[in-house]
Amino acid sequence: MRGRTKSSKPKSSAPLAPMEARSVDAIPLGPDWQYEPKWDGFRCLMVRSGDGVVLWSKSGEDLTRYFPELVAAARELKAERFVLDGEIVVPQGRTFSFDALLQRLHPAASRVNKLSVETPSLLLVFDLLANPRDDALGGQPLSERRKALEAFAKAQFKGHPTFRLSPVTTSDKQAAKWLAQAGGGSDGVIAKRRDLAYQSGNRDGMQKIKKFRSADCVVGGFRYASATLDGRKVVGSLLLGLYDEAGLLHHVGFTSALKRAEKPGLTDKLEKLPGEGFTGNAPGGPSRWSTERSSQWQKLAPKLVVEVCYDHFSGERFRHGTSLLRWRPDKAPKQCTMDQLAQTHIDPLKLLA
After folding, report:
1. What is the set of active-site residues?
2. Is the pTM higher than 0.85?
């Protein structure tokens, strides 16, 4: 990133994969951890080089065209070279609206531009991977990167309210308060290792704690409802999948929490996505719970991602039906892996001691 670049053309690919987070049940304790609110938005790497500004999603997709107000605001900063890691959110009253955020992913530029004025977004920044003085900040421990970020924010963000520095603490008591107060745009707490460099593309340095457990899953298939709706067959449940280390998509459960009014349109959408379905464990395998209907399902191409809420995961399956929280067009199916559900369990023997 040496030297000023006048071109505003985006790069062909993201500079690196963002850090991932592992879901855990409790806030990790100790001096090696720092804590941040977990924001409910679109994860984003913002890259500026000269006049060129690019916004990369967590899945490596180019978000630049959907947030023209962020691009314009980035060009107004004095620093002409930087890489920021943050979360795109859309304020609505005293909260952040994920629905308003989803509306930005629209094919019509006129619609996007209209929304960028009516519901402008913010970038909540929590990491700095490059600045004009150091192209390799990502290789420094988080404790050093945070100092650099705070200095960058102090020099750059004043007078530019589109950019906000995400708060941080090393107090687990404060983190517990954030967790208890989650809602309205924050759905939990993020814990990060202060002694590690930026963990691009893996979950080794970051954990997420929510007031509920959730997982991002691929929709690998669906079942039709047993009853018709207005004389037509409609979807009754979505079949959920997660990838293993070998890249096989395993069936891990289902969700039937679908709104009646949305079923016809969703059925139309699903029927246009036939594919190979699950490449690992599939629905309808031998089980004492199997019924004739277990094998009656429609295979889909692994294109759609949903976030579901669950109460227990064991034996590589959700033990009960899950609740559908939302669709996640900002997530890549290949990011829906088993390791996001790896939990740090309490030793039961210690509880009995």
Report:
1. 38
2. no
